[in-house]
Specification:
Blueprint: E1 56-58, E2 64-66, H1 75-103, E3 131-133, E4 138-140, E5 146-148, E6 157-159, E7 190-193, H2 206-210, H3 218-227, H4 235-243, H5 247-255, E8 260-265, H6 284-297, E9 300-305, H7 332-350, H8 353-356, E10 361-363, H9 370-373, H10 375-393, E11 402-406, E12 425-429, H11 456-474, E13 478-480, H12 518-535, E14 538-540, H13 560-566, H14 579-582, H15 609-615, E15 639-642, E16 675-677, H16 704-711
Parallel strand pairs: 7-8, 7-14, 8-9, 9-10, 10-11, 11-12, 12-13
Antiparallel strand pairs: 1-2, 3-6, 4-5, 15-16
């Protein structure tokens, strides 16, 4: 694997803070100090030394370590003492961290009694104790297969059948374990998306779509698969859930120096309605499996609701390619009712104590097209969603997840001061050169060292660094939920099925990484490093691209895993630090201090009264996409009279002790409102294609009181029955 090109301006890569512990299941030198730096967390033991080291050498943080000038005098007396002390220190380094991290770890919720591991085997009956391992350890998966855990950065995994909610794992030395606080502005997100696993995209899983050439999105693919019973029907999608991402993938992500994953999920993990072709609920156990793998390897999760009824953006990854029917057009309000209901159900699940540490961020809607829907309309919706979620979780730090919203392709500065006084909202941006609309043929294979990457690395620094830093102050916590090495739009199906541009002759080089030389790889790595440095907190899109029908990765610019394997992604994301400055691009750096309300401190949840007055009405005062003169009160709506479809907890094999609380999928027992459903006797247009249909001219049901109960609802919108 090629390393970063040498240059006079190269940012040096720090030596991993924890050495390799080959073939061991011990955890020497684990520190769980929340504020410890990588060097502070390093514990000197006999594992950290070698008889081959010179008498004067550098320690893991660059300090000089010298032999004692009296090392030879009296050695016969000193060495036995040192040997005894080293044995004691090694034992303490192993036993003490394991005791506190694995056995005596605690969740933050003192009022919830959970099963915990015990040092006394007799106390757990037939249940095995916790299994754990660091670099070089062997992992045995649920099907009995094994792999070697490679993590040179001090990470360790924990698998505890007696406490499946053990949050003591850590992905690396510079990231706090799951059961310690993440501090925004201090800790850095080095993340990757698990794209294409639960929300199918043609360019990520091209072989699935190549089997059905008429399929352009998951809607059409599901329809065609369902009719193809001879080849398994919709079970082909479940096969994809089961095989596309494995436990070893998650382990490799931790081993790559990353500490977060962003997991896009569809609303049909909860339910679908009869007119929708999706595979209903089947992905949920697989989502839970990924969350448990993340827990095992110490990775935090940004759980992202990627699809919305009616489509929030018209893209193929919203469920159906085409028109936007969320808060837009005749079915806009009705689709938004369903969306709020699904957001509520997910929030209830991940706010349970068992999941809070693993899922600290909930992205409530991916890439809503604000230019179509309207900024005022989205602000009103987001205020409604914020209040609904915080009514479930409570207000302030530690009460439920951060709420992530996308910038809607409006630019980060548009969102400065958004919902001032709200409780823990994150702004998510997706900077891409590939989809900027300004095609630039500038080459990236221009050399090595300072010349690597041509114009692209400096462009990433100048275009993204200033804007991201300004948003940390103007808005609050801001991260890049997606970015890639796609400096062009080349890649099979990248622009959708049937788009010839992404496989044009000019793209041929970028469809096959086997053609790439060291100069090409150096340029791509420099672009990745510059992007990471500019964005600061980021999630690469995406971890894996599946092979096409010809068994080639035909969108290699978008695969972090392939880049690691073939040498154009950095083997340590910390290499990115200082890249932009080395390129001569500087920006005013955010000082890491947010306003208290932005991170759940004093004032969180007290939204500026002026904003409440402007955006507190829901549904919004006006809906886009209606014909001139339409009476908005006649819009079709649903009634909240259906049983709520809660998300079930996982099933563990073997079952944990009865003292372990698994939860029932619902955090707030006082939240008893029912779910949205169609009003009996009313006729509804196609919820996914209602932009051009005729506007209703009368209420349904015809009584004004009935209409009021479903159009002008109280907060939360779906927590009252009509």
């Amino acid at each position: 694997m090629s390393s970063r090109p040498d240059s006079s301006t190269e940012v040096s890569l720090a030596t991993p803070d924890t050495p390799l512990y080959s073939n061991t299941n011990h955890l020497p030198g684990i520190s769980t100090s929340e504020t410890a730096t990588p060097c502070e967390s390093f514990i000197y033991t006999s594992y950290n030394s070698s008889p081959l080291l010179p008498s004067q050498h550098s320690g893991p943080c660059g300090e000089e370590i010298k032999s004692s000038p009296h090392s030879k005098k009296g050695a016969a007396y000193v060495r036995p003492v040192l040997l005894f002390l080293s044995v004691v220190l090694v034992a303490a380094a192993v036993v003490v961290p394991v005791y506190f991290v694995v056995i005596k770890h605690q969740h933050h919720e003192s009022d919830i009694a959970k099963g915990t591991s015990s040092s006394d085997p007799s106390s757990v009956g037939s249940h095995a104790g916790p299994t754990y391992g660091a670099n070089g350890s062997t992992v045995t998966t649920s099907d009995g297969s094994t792999f070697t855990y490679i993590n040179p950065f001090g990470g360790y995994w924990i698998d505890d059948p007696n406490d499946p909610f053990n949050d003591g794992a850590r992905p690396n030395s510079w990231t706090p374990p799951l059961n310690e606080s993440w501090v925004w502005g201090t800790n850095k997100v080095y993340g990757v998306n698990i794209g294409g696993l639960f929300v199918l995209e043609p360019f990520i899983s091209p072989a699935l779509f190549q089997r059905y050439p008429e399929a352009i999105d998951e809607w059409s693919l599901s329809t065609l698969m369902a009719a193809d019973t001879s080849n398994g029907g919709l079970s082909q999608i479940e096969d994809h859930y089961n095989t596309f991402i494995t436990e070893q993938d998650i382990a490799e992500i931790a081993g790559a120096g990353l500490n977060w994953i962003r997991v896009p999920i569809p609303f049909w993990a909860i339910e679908k309605w009869d007119f929708e072709p999706f595979l209903e609920q089947v992905c949920w156990p697989y989502i839970l499996r990924v969350l448990q793998w993340a827990r095992k390897y110490g990775l935090r999760v940004n759980l992202d609701l990627h699809t919305i009824p009616g489509s929030q953006n018209g893209f193929n990854h919203s469920g159906k390619f085409g028109k936007i029917n969320f808060l837009n057009g005749v079915m806009g309000v009705a689709n938004a009712q369903r969306a709020l209901g699904y957001i509520r159900i997910i929030a209830e699940f991940i706010s349970q104590p068992e999941w809070r540490n693993v899922v600290p961020v909930f992205g409530i809607m991916n890439e809503a097209r604000v230019a179509v829907i309207g900024m005022d309309q989205m602000t009103s919706f987001y205020m409604q969603a914020h209040d609904m979620i915080r009514n479930i979780t409570g207000y302030g730090e530690g009460n439920g997840p951060y709420i992530a919203i996308h910038d809607g392709f409006q630019g980060l500065s548009t969102w400065a001061g958004f919902l001032e006084g709200s409780d823990r909202i994150i702004l998510d941006t997706h900077p891409y050169f590939a989809f900027s609309g300004n095609s630039n043929p500038a080459p990236i294979a221009t050399g090595t060292g300072v010349d690597a990457g041509g114009i692209w690395p400096a462009l990433a620094c100048s275009k993204w660094g200033t804007e991201l830093n300004a948003s940390q102050t103007g808005f609050g916590v801001t991260f890049a939920g997606e970015f890639s090495n796609g400096f062009n739009d080349c890649g099979l199906y990248l622009n959708g099925v049937g788009n010839a541009q992404d496989v044009a002759p000019s793209c041929s080089l970028y469809l096959d990484s086997s053609q790439w030389n060291d100069t090409m790889k150096a340029g791509l790595q420099q672009l990745a490093l510059a992007s990471m440095d500019a964005l600061q907190d980021w999630f690469f899109w995406t971890w894996k691209i599946g092979p096409s029908s010809t068994n080639t990765i035909a969108a290699p610019l978008w695969s972090y895993q392939l880049g690691l394997q073939q040498g154009w992604m950095p083997t340590d994301p910390r290499m990115a630090t200082g890249t932009c400055a080395a390129l001569g691009v500087t920006a005013q750096q955010f000082d890491g201090v947010y306003q208290p309300y932005q991170t759940g401190g004093p004032g969180a949840g007290t939204i500026n009264p002026v904003l409440v007055s402007s955006y507190g009405q829901y549904p919004p005062k006006s809906i886009s996409g209606l014909t001139a003169g339409a009476t908005q009160s006649f819009l079709p709506t649903y009634t909240s009279t259906s049983a709520i479809p809660t998300l079930p907890p996982p099933t563990f094999t073997p079952s944990p002790p009865s003292s372990v609380i698994i939860g029932n999928g619902w955090f707030d027992s006082s939240d008893t409102g029912l779910a949205a459903t169609e009003v009996a006797g009313c006729t509804y247009p196609d919820a996914w294609d209602a932009i051009s249909v005729a506007m209703p001219t009368a209420l349904c049901p015809p009584t004004a009181s009935a209409a009021a109960s479903v159009v002008v609802t109280s907060v939360p919108a779906l927590a009252t029955s009509s």
